[in-house]
Amino acid sequence: MADRDYYQILGVGKNATDAEIKKAYRKLALENHPDRNKSKEAEGKFKEATRAYEVLSDPQKKQAYDQFGHAAFEQGAGQGNPFAGGNPFGGAQGGPFTYTYTTGGDAGGFDFGGFSDPFEIFEQFFGGGNPFGRQQARRSVYSLTIDFMDAVKGATKRISVEGKSQTVKIPAGVDNNQRVRFGDYDVLIEVRPDRRFKREGSDVVTEEDVSFAQAALGAEINVETVAGFVKLRIPPGTQPNTVIRLSQKGIPHVRGNGRGDHYIQIKITVPKGLSSRQKEILREFDSSKKKSWF
Fold first, then answer.
1. Using CA atoms, how far apart are residues 81 and 78, in angstroms rounded to an integer?
2. Is the pTM higher than 0.85?
3. How far is residue 235's CA from residue 27's CA, in Å, rounded to a whole number?
4. Residue 274: phi, psi to the nearest 5?
5. What is the pLDDT of residues 52-89, one digit of tens each?
6. What stretches of 95-217 show up as alpha helix (H) in DSSP?
7. Which residue ranges form the domains of the chain, and what is each CATH number?
């Protein structure tokens, strides 16, 4: 039987966002996880959904799948496929989903479709352990508060673990209340807010004040992003609260390549303390034949 379309498996469209893909997979995983649903049919659905999520949640794999379909992950794939003759993602023979994860519990051997640890999906979704009661050794959790820019760019920090100093490497793009696994313990990250940047997932939102003249006539201004200062062109006739998108200037993705975007909301400042000449010019403009400057 031919492999089903990964988008069809998760019940999402090709333009689905990362959040929509994760939400769809979470629903299927909860319904069909082998610890919760013992039917053979559920086991197959869980593996199928996990394979689909493994590909569609990774930007590089998703791009290859969108272009070549399942052939992108087959040995000696068809003509025109730049990955032909080998799996580009480093999996075992036949694709990236072929090994078996074996537990010490009653589940025996089970192919979880490419995840190095099947319980990671529950830590991602719930911020904690497996909700279905599988017996595991309790992992110690230590909290660490870091600055906003350390979360964006990554950092190396020292924490105290059982009285001993340990060095931990915080990955770039980590978010508030996210757990990072180190050896046999977890670190719960708390991120201090930043007065300049507001974070929304992997995107950043800021406000930028421009003068009435700059908005009306157009201008080029310097704006600060998490990736540094960039020049931003304000188009002539820009309206209040216009939002301008800077592609790939947001937060790096913790899993996978690329980064989010930076959205700038334009605020137009109304001048105070106008001179007599300036007031006269504005009155002339207001009384001109133009119905509105907007």
1. 6
2. no
3. 44
4. -65, 145
5. 888 898 888 888 888 888 877 665 444 445 444 444 33
6. 120-126, 148-153, 212-217
7. 137-193 (2.60.260.20), 198-286 (2.60.260.20)
